[in-house]
Write a structure and sequence with these properties.
This protein folds into two domains: 16-186, no CATH class; 255-312. It has helices at 16-32, 66-69, 73-76, 93-117, 138-143, 181-184, 190-200, 207-224, 231-239, 241-254, 261-272, 277-281, 283-287, 291-300, 303-312, and strands spanning 36-43, 50-57, 82-86, 128-133, 147-148, 157-159, 166-170. The protein is an alpha/beta fold. The chain is built from 15 helices and seven strands. A hairpin with an 8-residue loop joins strand 5 (147-148) and strand 6. It is globular. The relative contact order is 0.09.
Length: 313
């Protein structure tokens, strides 16, 4: 969970937390959507609160496919309904309590539904909360009684006592191997940068690589139009440059860069459904871009990204 502040931290506006928040939610949604239902910002009954990402597997068979096995540790976490709460910065104790209250409200809803339907609750099939934090101190983990289960799970995966149905993924403690890559992408600093390097070595048709690259490039584009970026954000943009070049080569093969002006407009219509007044207003500078830059923007930018960039220019 990341926050959008209107104030500043040490004199620097920290609106980029919202950018990473959006990336994390969209990333988890894209990876898990083939295997069940995924909701972003799921409402919690009783007050105005939202679960960052809520996943329910569509069927047991969907969790036994080769594709989900390629997600490694992330695939292991979703054998039951799951609440994911990803944080860009080290999670605070109060934030874990807030997330836990969302889980308890969800469990209460399951119990009410079971009572109304006359069905029996199976404890092991109840939703589980996973806090995804870039780092976690020993004191933080001990405060929640979080324990490892190294016989069955990777280092870095901590469980609360079973009846609490919760746990913490300390991303910086995950071993550097392919099965943890899907979660290390959501890390911070050198951990995330190393994961990006590993992502580039995966086969082009690997589902994790195919879905993650365009999301990362969209994040790169969004960060580049922001002001007052921290050094860490600028370093991350540089780390994504090789992926940009790699994707550019793939775009050349796909042939979008040879499109005429009319074909470019058709590509835009196909992506956004219609060209409203705001999009028409930025059409001239957008269509004047070099072919390769236009192709990458088309692939990796949202409508809001394009409006923010070209309305300013």
């Amino acid at each position: 969970m990341y926050y959008l502040f209107s104030g500043a931290e040490n004199g620097i506006c920290i609106v980029t937390k919202f950018v990473y928040d959006s990336f994390a939610k969209n990333y988890l949604r894209e990876l898990l959507l083939p295997f069940g239902s995924v909701e972003i910002g799921r409402d919690v009954v009783g007050e105005v609160r939202e679960i960052d990402v809520y996943f329910e597997p569509s069927s047991l068979s969907s969790l036994q496919t080769a594709d989900i096995q390629l997600l490694g540790l992330l695939g292991q976490l979703v054998t039951t309904p799951v609440l994911f709460e990803p944080f860009r910065y080290p999670t605070k104790v109060s934030e874990v309590r807030s997330c836990s209250s969302k889980l308890f409200d969800t469990l209460a809803r399951w119990e009410r539904d079971a009572k109304r339907n006359g069905s029996t609750i199976v404890e092991a099939e109840l939703p589980r909360l996973w806090i995804l934090t870039p780092t976690a101190s020993e004191a933080f983990l001990n405060g929640f009684g979080a324990k490892l289960d190294l016989d069955n799970w990777s280092p870095g995966v901590y469980f609360f006592h079973e009846s609490w149905r919760g746990g913490v993924i300390a991303i910086h403690q995950l071993p550097v191997k392919e099965e943890t890559l899907s979660l290390r992408i959501l890390g911070k600093g050198k951990v995330q940068q190393k994961a990006v390097e590993e992502l580039q070595t995966l086969a082009k048709n690997n589902p994790l690589r195919a879905k993650t690259v365009d999301l990362l490039l969209n994040l790169k584009t969004t960060l580049e139009i922001r002001k007052d970026l921290k050094r860490e954000d600028r370093d991350f943009i540089m780390k994504l440059s090789p992926i940009y070049e790699q994707r550019l080569a793939e775009v050349r093969e796909e042939g979008i860069q040879t499109a005429t002006q009319v074909e470019r407009q058709n590509f835009l219509r196909a992506k956004f459904g219609t060209l409203d007044e705001e999009l028409v207003a930025i059409m001239e500078p957008l269509l004047a871009l070099p072919s390769e830059e236009f192709a990458l923007l088309l692939l990796n930018s949202s409508r809001d990204d394009l409006l923010a960039r070209f309305s300013q220019s």
